[in-house]
Amino acid sequence: MNNQYGFPPELISQPPEQRLLYFKNPDKTIMHEQLKIAFNKLFRTVHESAGASIILVIGPSGVGKSTLLQLLKKKILEESLVQMSISPAWIPIICVEAPAPAGKATFRWKNFYRTILLAVDEPGIDQKIDYDSDGVHRSSNGKLLISQKATEDSLRSSMEKALIHRHPYTLAIDEFQHIGKLAGIELLQAHMDCVKSAVNITKVPWTGFGTYQLIDFLELSPQLSRRTKIIHFPRYNLQFDEDINEFKRVLEHLQLRMPLKETPPLRQKYWEFCYERSIGNIGTLIGWLTDAYDLCLNENATTLTLEHLQQTAKSAHECEQMASEAILGEERLIDSKYTTKSLRAILGFDNSEAKTKKHNTLNSEDNQLKSNHKSKQKRKPIQRNPKRDKVGSPKSEN
Could you report how far apart the first and last alpha carbons of the chain are, in Å? Predict the structure, then answer.
């Protein structure tokens, strides 16, 4: 049973490792407002892609995109248990991570195809896929073997066959921005052509999770942009009161989950510093507070202090760089008044409004002229113009 502080009271007497493990519990996800909104949009989009061949979940580094991916996987698997028992070969969602190129190298599809093949060929699935590509085969006991000599084309062909066979709702790819690392315009275009081709052949949508660098992919290829659904997963912004209140609520939840003799006043005293060194990213905040709590436990302190936070926080320079990148990405992604006005001008709305106003003015003037003309036509030739006669008898002339 939990006490008013949000943790079992017996944890206070447990070793530091047990208390830290309780705080880090990966099964206890904080469903804060931005995460909830992003999850609902993503789950609905994956289930009902409505022609979207690529789904991009875009947000700053540290906002919690990997957590969002794990929530999506868990939800889809839970809802697919019955169908999976009926169709053993079906995998409702396949999750991989795009490997970061080493050093100054660019993205290598060959390694990525290998990663997808291994993810599709889960050990617990009895319905194995028979590959007939060079360098991709099975051992006598059914284990998938991928030779180092396997060509990129053979791996791609095997990957496409695997995705067609498993037919998941989506292929979910974390760190999707790694595909475009150090790529020039032509190479980036080639990468996007690979993605489009794979989606067209397999009919399996790709869901990429990445930073604002993914906007470069969309700006490069208008055709790709038309087939892409964007889901923005933003940080909490100081410009909005509701964001500040939600950030404070998350802080209070976290401070109550720390098994300590005294509850640390994160929300009451240190929320501004917590925001400053996390720039409003909940993922960054949780990782940082985990380190600070670990330090607190190692010192056998009764509560977590400002000094613990300062010693484990990111530097001001690093946070400034993070904030600059996040703000720039938000400005590129979120419609501003200027971009909306520019769009309306391109589509001709401004000209149409001006023409409509001019047309209405001319119609009004024309109607007035017609009205006056009709009024004159209705009078007989000898009929006087309407005017008030003088009252009383005329004076006699002398």
Answer: 121
Of the candidates 98, 95, 91, the one whose C-alpha atom is nearest the C-alpha of residue 194 is 98
- For residue 381, pLDDT over 60 is answered with no
Residue indicated by tokens 């998941």: 168
Relative to beta strand 170-174, strand 93-97 is parallel
Q: What is the pTM of this model?
A: 0.80
From 340, 337, 284, 333, select the one nearest 312 (Cα to Cα).
284
Instruction: Answer yes or no: is 363 within a domain.
Output: no
Cα–Cα distance for residue pair 106/169, rounded to 1 Å? 29
Pair (265, 219) in one structural domain: no
Which of the listed residues 203, 232, 261 is the one where a domain comes to its end? 232
**What's the domain range around 68?**
33-232
341-369 residue pLDDT tens: 676 788 888 665 555 555 555 555 555 54
**Chain length of the chain:** 398
d(CA 102, CA 108): 10
Same domain, 186 and 80: yes
Q: pLDDT tens-digit profile of 258-299?
A: 999 999 999 999 999 999 999 999 999 999 999 999 999 999
| 278, two tokens | 């996390």
What Cα–Cα distance (Å) separates residue 370 from each residue in 343, 373, 376, 377?
39, 5, 10, 11
Are 27 and 19 a contacting pair, CB within 8 Å? no
The 3-state DSSP class for residue 137 equals: strand
Do β-strands 144-146 and 136-138 pair in parallel, antiparallel, or remain unpaired? antiparallel
Name 379's Cβ contacts closer than 8 Å, sequence gap at least 6.
385
Contacts 24+ apart (CB under 8 A), 5-8: 5/256, 5/263, 6/253, 6/256, 6/257, 7/256, 7/257, 7/258, 7/259, 8/259
DSSP 311-363: HHSPPHHHHHHHHHHHHHHHHHHSPPHHHHHHHHHHHTHHHHHHHHHHHHHHH
Question: Which residue has 């830290």 as its token pair?
Answer: 20
Residues 248 and 111 in one domain: no
Q: Is the distance from CB of 329 to CB of 177 less than 8 angstroms?
A: no
| Domain shared by 132 and 226, yes or no | yes
Amino acid at 208: G
